[in-house]
């Protein structure tokens, strides 16, 4: 099955809405992560830059890296909760826990 045939099959089975199935949970994760990353990046740039008008490439790289670490470290627990919730719902639907490697190794 190629990508186009898979896309057409999804549209045929669930309509155009099927293309966005599950995206709400993704937006709930991405929006705060992006906000945290932007805020952390700006704050770190301010700390690193002190009196300078512009930062060097290395300073921007460090600020961006630290911002990414801060944002991901903050959001990761929410990702785990979402995974566990999805596995739990799937286990109720299928009536066994094999679908999500034994409910994420029994949590």
From TrEMBL:
Keywords: Membrane, Repeat, Transmembrane, Transport. It is a multi-pass membrane protein. The keyword Transcription does not apply. Its main location: membrane. It is found in: Membrane. Solcar repeats lie at residues 1-47. The keyword Zinc does not apply. Belongs to the mitochondrial carrier (TC 2.A.29) family. This is Uncharacterized protein. It comes from Goodea atripinnis. The lineage of its organism: Eukaryota, Metazoa, Chordata, Craniata, Vertebrata.
């Amino acid at each position: 099955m190629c990508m186009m045939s898979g896309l057409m099959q999804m549209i045929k089975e669930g309509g155009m809405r099927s293309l966005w199935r599950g995206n709400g949970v993704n937006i709930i994760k991405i929006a705060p992560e992006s906000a945290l990353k932007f805020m952390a990046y700006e704050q770190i740039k301010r700390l690193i830059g002190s009196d300078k008008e512009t930062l060097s490439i290395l300073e921007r790289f460090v600020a961006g890296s630290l911002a990414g670490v801060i944002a991901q470290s903050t959001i990761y627990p929410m990702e785990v909760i979402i995974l566990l919730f999805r596995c739990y719902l799937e286990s109720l639907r299928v009536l066994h826990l094999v679908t999500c490697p034994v409910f994420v190794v029994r949590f």
